[in-house]
Amino acid sequence: MEGTTRETPRVSALGDRDHRSTVVPRRALFELLSAGADGGVTLVCAPPGSGKTILLRSWIEEAGLTERAAWVSVERGEQDAQRFWLSIIERLRSAVGPDAFVETLAPTPGFDGEAVVERLVSELGSLDEPVVLVIDDLQELASVDALAQLERLIAQRPRLLRVVLATRRDPQLGLHRVRVAGELTEIRAADLRFTVDETSELLAVAGIVLADQSVAVLVSRTEGWAAGLRLAALSLVGHTDPERFVDEFSGSERTVADYLLAEVLERQPDDVRRLLLRTSILDRVNGELADVLTEASGSELVLNGLAQANAFVTALDTGRTWFRYHSLFAELLRFELRRRASHLVFELHRSAAAWWLRHGFPIEATRHAQAAEDWPYAARVLADHGFSLCLHGQGATVAALLGAFPVDVRADPELVLLSSNEPLQRGRLDEAEALLNLAERDASAVPPEQRHAFEVKLTAGRLVLARRRGDFESVLGQIQTLRGLLDAQPPRDFALADEVRTVALMNLGIVELWSFMTAESELHLERGLELARELRIPYVEVGCLSHLSVIAATRRTYALARERSQDAIAVADAHGWAAEAVVGIAPLELATLDVLQGRFDDAHAWHERAEQALLGGVDPAAELLLYLLRGWLFLVDGRHDDALEPFRAGEQHQRLVVAPQQLSAPARFFLVHTLLRIGDTAGAHATLADVSGADRDWADLRCAFAALHIADGDAEAALKVLSPVLDRSAPGSKLSTVFGFLLDAFARDLLGDVAAADKSIECALEFAEPDGIIFPFVVTPSEELLRRHARHTAHAALLSDILDVLSGSSLSAPAGSRPELREDLTESELRVLRYLSSNLSAPEIGRELYLSLSTIKTHMRHIYAKLGVHHRTEAVERARQLRLLAPTVGRR
Predict the structure, then answer these.
(1) Residue closest to 689 by CA, chosen among 705, 703, 673
(2) Whose C-alpha in 47, 191, 343, 651 is 20 to 30 A from the C-alpha of 371?
(3) Under DSSP, is residue 151 helix (H, G, I), strand (E, B) or coil?
């Protein structure tokens, strides 16, 4: 049994009669499955070894569904909802084909399963032919969130999606709804029991001849249990007295399994028996790993032979390099290993842990180290790799691994620090802070060689915590510490800490951005973006791009800001992150740019997307900007009373955020502006009553005081307070400068100085034109001054667009510019394009135009290519810019 070499792999008793399949086509069950597919949901629920998986695979092949079936096997004890849905989407994409608009999904630290299901339901609604989703081993799905999300998918499943669930026990999915609706087909253990005829066929395929009476006895004693019959068939191959074997065959299901396991193992060559026992500790195995555990070579050939012989060994990939054992077979093998060589179990787990770690699988390495009760090694592996795993969307798995440690081991400061990730991501900030404090308190227990990486992660964690709380002033005190740690990185820590550095750079840049340190912010976000792309961390790439778009709008151009926002959204959409908080800044910035440039309809659409990602306190600074944007949209709609609510909410929210006036000053200005528009001068005075002397220097607040002075009829006071805004010495944005010149024009017009007022209007247009800023002219009473000035301006294109918006239009492109089309669209493509702005799905558009779905999809791909876009919303937006679609009526 303990041989260490093998020259020729042998599987003599496992069906080496040309490796003929022992799969019996079960026609009655095939018909039941096919009928159930039309009903929508099929549940195959039976104990292990009942033949569920073999039945479904053979039905799929028999029914010709191989190319349209998405098969997902749930991993043992799966607690990670994200990994489950990643598998679902990957398999569905393969089944429906590249043209079916099922977009890919990548791991993300802030996974939103509900959004994934919603998107999947929408995408699968465009199917033009049925697809079968098979979820095998559903009993292993231990994530409550994933089960709830799966229940929602089943309840809202598209018309052509068939769902088949295979499980050992009834799932907690609320299937009573589809059962009552007559849309559930159920196959239970009694249905799966082999009949005498099916058993005879099973034995005949394996080359076994038994008398009818012996077959009946075998069926009776196994109760038609598929695994028992297959094990019996394996033992009967080449048996000298098969009739006597059947006569002596007896016992309960477990007894039968134990008896047959012994029979199967005893009939194998030593090297095959050694391989089966030693590799039974694994969930999946390949030849190299089996060689390590058996201390031999040639394992891959033996595994292939066992799989071909249908010996409870299944290949997991088309290349037949990875294998798994039937779960019951593996359980029995493990039982036998403990019985025969219990002293080897821990040693095998240690060897497996080391192999998995060497090959870049830290999750598997940690699990095997835990199984070996080698807690120090398991803790070291998880501490070294946990940050990276969380960053790549494996946070739930990390949390489960942490929970498997004994309580005293979990007190390790590195594991305590790692455990802060989950509450930090889910907004339980007090809990996260307590864990960070605990980790810092026990930092002296961290090995010296790990101390630097620990300090970087701890500081980065505190930086994230402070950012999430909006406590920017206190986090600035940690910036120098973090900079010093990153600059003093020991050479041995570069590989380990690169990802930490990347995330730290992103968070550092975000904090600096909202703290009005834009030059430093841009530098760190650019470095973070470069490193994220180098290390292939798209989540950080999106975060850096999103916030760089905000910087571009203030320090560069709106065009660059728009480009960076669109790049961030493209990366996010490619990975299925539409509703992630880190992505929310990009649609928020696009909505802001659209409002500022007079594209109000588009702004509403981007605002809705930003709201989905940013509401709920996930990013206090962004939430404040979201209030501001919502108020802007009310202003351009002429709903001044409604605008008061978000502006006041933003002011109240700012009081909860320890942030400089860069964030709060605009909200205060627009609150004053709105109060004055509705005639509430007293309210405007009250709003500015508590502004301190230092805060008065901000351009936005100077504009607020100027507007109030004008409302009070004191034009001279307004001109005085605006002077630092106009010469750009007061800190502020391009927007505040344009507002400043407009207010200056109003003040000078109030004084009767028409020439000076015209000059200020021209200056406002001059500052607005490079970026096509229209918003200030729309929300202030400037139309009369603008029309009077129309004959004297050098900015006629911009002024024309402003007047168009004031007359009720919504621009289809940034003011003063019109893009060009790459290549002309055909008449057919133009007809399809006109329907893209509707709510019709691709199949519905096809029915309207009497075209097939494939033709519609082809036209859509051509349209996207010619317009230089990637998605339907972008295509509509681009078409409006090009005047291929009529602009919609502005909301005023």
Answers:
(1) 705
(2) 47
(3) helix
CA separation for the pair 648, 652 (Å, rounded): 6
Both 120 and 34 in a single domain? yes
Find the Cα–Cα–Cα–Cα dihedral 685, 690, 692, 697, rounded to 10°.
-30
Residue whose C-alpha is closest to residue 418's, from 374, 459, 379, 383: 383
Residue type, 300: E
- Give yes or no: residues 78 and 203 share one domain: no
Amino acid at the residue 556: R
Q: What is the CATH number of the domain that holds 875?
A: 1.10.10.10
Q: CA 151, CA 176: separation in Å to the nearest integer?
A: 11
Phi-psi region of 850 (alpha: psi -120 to 50; beta: other; left: phi over 0): left
- CB atoms near residue 122 (< 10 Å): 13
User: Which DSSP letter does residue 128 get?
Assistant: S
Q: Do the beta carbons of residue 60 and residue 69 sit within 8 Å?
A: yes
Contact 269, 277 (CB under 8 A): no
Q: How far, in Å, CA of 806 to CA of 800, rounded?
A: 10
H or E element that contains 71: strand 69-73
Among residues 343, 168, 340, 333, which one has the least CA distance to residue 258? 333
* CA–CA separation, 792 and 217 (whole Å): 105
For the chain, list residues with pLDDT below 70.
Answer: 1-22, 37-39, 98-101, 249-265, 267, 309-312, 327-328, 472-473, 475-476, 479, 486, 489-497, 578-579, 615-618, 654-663, 810-822, 883, 885-892
Sheet with 41-45: list strands edge to edge.
69-73, 131-136, 161-167, 41-45, 184-187
Cβ neighbours, 10 Å, residue 765 = 23
Specify the DSSP element, H or E, that contains 706.
helix 699-711
Q: What is each CA distance from 735 to 200, 220, 415, 613, 771, in whole angstroms?
A: 84, 85, 47, 26, 10
Domain end, chosen from 160, 192, 224, is at: 192
Q: What is the CATH number of the domain that holds 187?
A: 3.40.50.300
Instruction: Strand 285-286: give its sheet, edge to edge.
Output: 285-286, 322-325, 313-315
* Residue 706 and residue 683 share a domain: yes
Task: Give pLDDT, residue 177.
Answer: 81
Hey, what amino acid is at 683? G
831 and 752 within one domain: no
Count of residues in the chain: 892
Q: What is the pLDDT of residues 100-156, one digit of tens each?
A: 667 777 787 878 888 889 888 888 887 888 899 999 999 999 999 999 999 999 998
Find residue 73's DSSP bridge partners: 136
Q: What tokens were used for 705?
A: 């005081």
pLDDT at 576: 72
161-167 and 131-136 beta bridge pairing: parallel
Nearest CA to 311 out of 207, 218, 230 is that of: 230
Helix (H) or strand (E) holding 43: strand 41-45
Contact at 8 Å (CB) between 459 and 450? no
Judge whether 562 lies within some domain. no
Asked whether residue 80 falls in the same domain as residue 164, the answer is: yes
Cβ pair 165, 41 in contact under 8 A: yes
The DSSP 8-state label assigned to residue 691 in this structure reads: -
Look at residue 267 in the predicted model and tell me its pLDDT.
67
Q: What is the C-alpha separation between 87 and 75, in angstroms, rounded?
A: 10
- The helix/strand/coil state of 106 is coil
Number of domains observed in the structure of the chain? 5
Quickly count: other Cβ atoms within 10 Å of residue 839's Cβ.
6
Tokens standing for 609?
């997307």
DSSP string, 127-159: -SS-EEEEEE-GGGB--HHHHHHHHHHHHT--T
Provide the token pair at 505.
Answer: 């750079």
Question: Considering 446, 475, 505, which residue would you say is the last residue of a domain?
Answer: 446
Looking at beta carbons, which pairs linking 58-63 to residues 24 or more positions away fall under 8 Å?
A: 58/23, 58/25, 58/26, 58/30, 59/29, 59/30, 59/33, 59/34, 60/132, 60/134, 62/25, 62/30, 63/30, 63/33, 63/34
